[in-house]
Every structure is written in C-alpha cells, then in structure tokens.
Amino acid sequence: MLNGVWMTLDSLDVSPAFLFISLPEEISHRPSRVTFSDCKGNDKLHYEVSSPYFRVNTDGSLVALRNITAVGKTLFVHARTPHAEDMAELVIVGGKDIQGSLQDIFKFARTSPVPRQKRSIVVSPILIPENQRQPFPRDVGKVVDSDRPEGSKFRLTGKGVDQEPKGIFRINENTGSVSVTRNLDRETIATYQLFVETVDVNGRTLEGPVPLEVIVIDQNDNRPIFREGPYIGHVMEGSPTGTTVMRMTAFDADDPATDNALLRYNIRQQTPDKPSPNMFYIDPEKGDIVTVVSPALLDRETLENPKYELIIEAQDMAGLDVGLTGTATATIMIDDKNDHSPKFTKKEFQATVEEGAMGVIVNLTVEDKDDPTTGAWRAAYTIINGNPGQSFEIHTNPQTNEGMLSVVKPLDYEISAFHTLLIKVENEDPLVPDVSYGSSSTATVHITVLDANESPVFYPDPMMVTKQENISVGSVLLTVNATDPDSLQRQTIRYSVYKDPAGWLNINPINGTVDTTALLDRESPFVHNSVYTALFLATDSGNPPATGTGTLLITLEDVNDNAPFIYPTVAEVCDDAKNLSVVILGATDKDLHPNTDPFKFEIHKQTVPDKVWKISKINNTHALVSLLQNLNKANYHLPIMVTDSGKPPMTNITDLRVQVCSCKNSKVDCNAAGAPHFSAATALLLSLFSLARL
C-alpha cells in the first residue's frame, strides 16, 4: 500500500512498485487482471500502459495485443483517479517452461525471488513519468527502515537534491516518503542517482548511504526531426527498377528503447507527379529511397522536369496514428547519360573567303538532346578529310556548341579556288554501349576562295649586296626583282624608293636597277655594323593597285679614308719637376683594321732648341711625351704627327699644348702660362688610366 492506494495483480502478495514477470517464449492474447484502489470508489479510474502491445481494460484486465518475444522489456502500468495515482513496473525476464496466464507467471516469479543482501533500509527504484502536471510536490515513493532507532531521521543526497539541479527531490525525514517538486524532462536527465541514509539527532550517519535510483519514464513528447539537410540525391536516367538513390534518417529525442523513438518513413508527396505519381519508394524502416518505375520511364529527355521533390515524413510510435511526425524535402536529380549522339542540322555547309584572309569563315550547327551542362552534350569537331596543308582548324563554341571553322593559313586563289572538307562531330563523353554515331554525325563543307589583288612580292627578301665605300656616284648596285602573285591577271609593276635614310640611292621604276646618287660612307651614322638598310616599293597596275615592300641590305667594305687623331691635346708639367714625363698620348681611327693601328707617333717640328722634347712608343695605340730638361713657366705648342697602317697610310698632325706651371708648397700656379690648374702628375695619371682601359 502506497499512501493509502493499493495496486495489485490478482491480489498477489507482491510489491506493486516493482514486479519481475517471467514470460514464456510467446504470450498470446490471454488476459490477467490488475487491481487498483484509491479507497474512494475508484471514480473515473484510468489505466495507461507504456507499451502499445499491451492494454489495460476498464475492468482492470491486462491484455497482450500480440505475441511477445522481447524478453527484458519493461512495462509500466499507470493508474490514475482524481483522488490518487500509482504506477507499477513489470519486467519480462523470460522462461520456456512457464505456461498459463499472467497470474501464473507472477506466481512463478514470486516463488523464485532474486537473492538480496539483508539490510534494515529497504529502497526500491522510483519511476516517474516525465511532464507530470500540477500539483507539486507529490509523493513518488517511500523508503522503509524496519530497525530505525527512535529519534533517527532519513536524509536524502545526490544530484537533484543537494547537487545541481538542486531541490528536485526531497524526503520526509520522519516517514521516508520521497517526493518530487516539479515536472521532469527525460531528454534532459533520464536517471537520478540518489542516496538514502539514517542519521541521529546530531546528523551522524547510523546506516547507509543506500543508493536510490530514480528513473524518468519517457513520454512521446518529441517529434522526429531531420537534422542533416539539405537532402539531394542523384540517379542516372534509365537506371533499373529498385536502384537506391539516397538515404534519409530522422532523429527522435525520446527513449530509443521505446516505441516513442521507433520511426517509420513514408513519402507524403511527389512533385511533379508525371509520368507516374509513384516514381520512388522509401523503405519504412531504413529510410532508403529507391526507384520503382521501369527504366523507360526514367528517361531524362522525355521527362517534364528532371528534378523531383519528395516530402518525406518520419513518424514515431512505429508509424501508428498516435505517433508524432516530422517532415523534410528530398530533391532527386535525374542525371543525364550520353544516350543521344550529336547530329548536324544539315549535311552540307557553304563558306566563302577571300584569298589571304584568316579567321572564322562558317559556324557548323548540331543538335543534341542530352544535358547541356555535361560532356554528353558538349561537341568535339574533327576535320577528317580535305585539309592536307593544315590551312583549316575547327573549334567548339562553348556557349552555342557550334563548330567554328577557321582559316589559319592564307589561301591562294591561283593555287586552288575551291576546297571541300569532311568534318565529324562527337561528344566529349563516350556514348552508352547501345548508341553509336551515325551518318548525321558527319557533314561536308564547301569553301569558295575569292580572288584578290595581291601585292607584288620581292624575291629574295631581304636582298643583300656587298660594295666598297666611296665607290663612284652612279655605280650600279643590283637589279631588284618583284613578281605579282596574280598570275591569271596581266599587270605591270613599277618600282620606287620607300626609305633611303642617307639619300644615296636611286631605282629605275621600270626595270628595278638600283644605282648610287652619292658616295657611300661606311662611317656614316646611318650605317650600323657596316650595313646600310634601304626599302623599296613594287606597285602593280590593279584597281585598286597593290603594293609590296622589299628590303635591301648593303654591306660596305672599309677603305682607308680616315686619318687617325690623338688625345688628349692639352697637358701640364711643373717647371721644377723631377719626373720629366709630360703626357701619354692615345690615337684612334674611324676605319677598320688593317687601316688603323699600329700607329706611328712623331714630333713633326719643334719651336724650341732640339732635344728638348721626346716621344716614345708604349704600344700600338699609345706613346709617351716627355721633356729632356726643365723649361720655364710658359705655354708650348708641340706638333704631333700620327700615321695609321693603311695602304696607302694616312697621316694627321695635331698641336699638343703643354703648360709649364710653377709648383711650390704643393700649389700649382699656371696663371702666368694661361693654363688650367692641373699638375703634370695629374695629367700623367689621367693618361695612364686611359691607357689601362684600352
């Protein structure tokens, strides 16, 4: 008896709070009776059973609705009136040799008790349904201590009492009644592990602590939810019936050991509903979506829309009407396969191009029923005949899928006025085995070349000739030759000078003879690396006329027509210098070897007594000028003659101005000599530096 309420099973002498039921392998529909009393007539008595496979009738009879083999399953019978309520737990423990009604089963369980250690504090697990309504607090169980000393008290501890979340449970310290202070949520905390002990008036433990387990009984208060979306699946067109597309699974926060979380799946809606309203099926237990139509109906090219949207429903309570539901949308794409070959829109194409022109001349159009976003639609073109000179190329326009036929090498009307190409088209992806490329996958292109007035062509180009510089004016260099590619037309060619930077040349407009109008100078700034470049024009008599350009390269051979010259032409020396070296002279020549060095240096004449100046050869290009004695402070002019090695040689005489300066106390004074303030030593060093760089 709990709080004046009795709940028994056919008046068996067992604790109504926790019963072990030993069932045979199968229990058929054989009723037994549950008795509950609220001591006030059981007005509006209502029973609830946690399993949908059992029912308690209004007369208290407990009925199994189908054969049960789930040994270990726990049942909870909840009895409630406006005045009281109570609950009993029934645990199926199994037994092959047990036959008969539930009453006999209970009797068997009672005669085979589970051995327990004897103690004075007796506790049984407390089972509390979640989401109970007011009023609170309400008693949910009782602790008994048959040997509790007088004056001792019960004390309850643990998570939910004095540990967070605190204050959910409490115990009557005198009677041992355990109560709950608010409704519970199994999905937050499914079990509470509490401890009961007895203490004396000073709070010292007399017995315990003894564990007390509080189990929160699940109610179906959570809908299934799909947590992994979006759900997008793909299936190839023409797939066999029964092809798995995707799997959809939902989550239910209720107790997975109960039917509250036992889910079943079904398709609530399919959009579009053509060609069949049932294109797919979902496994009610696994959630696998499979095709159920024939491969012929799963043809992407004939479908109204290759995308299907399914509203999938998950329902708990094993799909019973009382179960809660959740929905999600599955999007299924019918993927394309290459089951249609590309076909030209016509067998023959025409194109016209002017000779000499390049670029796209015609676009070849094809049709393909496959998906334009895949390689099953994209076309690849190949020229298989008629292109021996590789004058044509074809590429695919990625936007239109057309074949763009181009001329990549200029065509010559005089060689061939017509071209015929054979072109085939294929897909980037291979065709499926039962489809092949037919005659519609090849096409012929007829190309007409239009004649154009082509420019005359010089041959050779560039034209090259070698001549000595300084040849006489009017000398013939060569006769140029230009031909007209328009061999089928009778046209004349006239020649003219286009670019002649130095103005040295003339060309006969009729026969193309080139002669000189001035002396050719290899040392001219218009000549680079001994080569002079001129351009000529050849113009035909067409309408309009066409002009071609030819290049003439004249290589000029050197002659000894430039005398050498010396550097520097000014020097300084101290009037009391101990080193009588004056300056190192260098020579250069604009001509080429052998018309340059070795140079010969000489003093042409002296305005001072003989043997005052001396010049000595250093190497092929330099000589040293020195004094034989000190001179007074003044300016001196020394004529230096330098001769090159040409045949015949050329000579140049240059005055070397030497300033003799006063050099005292590290100061150089050339004012009286009218010369710059540079010492002779400085001039000598500069000359040596110049020599070292050669």
Automatic annotation (TrEMBL):
GO MF annotation, one: cadherin binding
Membrane topology: Lipid-anchor; GPI-anchor
Keyword Acetylation on entry: no
Role, per record: Cadherins are calcium-dependent cell adhesion proteins. They preferentially interact with themselves in a homophilic manner in connecting cells; cadherins may thus contribute to the sorting of heterogeneous cell types. May act as a negative regulator of neural cell growth.
Compartment(s): Cell membrane; Cytoplasm
Taxonomic path: Eukaryota, Metazoa, Chordata, Craniata, Vertebrata
Name of the featured protein: Cadherin-13
GO cellular component, one term: cytoplasm
Keyword Isomerase recorded: no
Residue ranges of domain Cadherin in the record: 128-226, 227-344, 345-458, 459-566, 565-678
InterPro entries given in the database record: Cadherin (IPR039808), Cadherin-like_dom (IPR002126), Cadherin-like_sf (IPR015919), Cadherin_CS (IPR020894), Cadherin_pro_dom (IPR014868)
Subunit structure: By contrast to classical cadherins, homodimerization in trans is not mediated by cadherin EC1 domain strand-swapping, but instead through a homophilic adhesive interface which joins two elongated EC1-EC2 domains through a region near their Ca2+-binding sites to form a tetrahedral, X-like shape.
Species, as recorded: Bos taurus (Bovine)
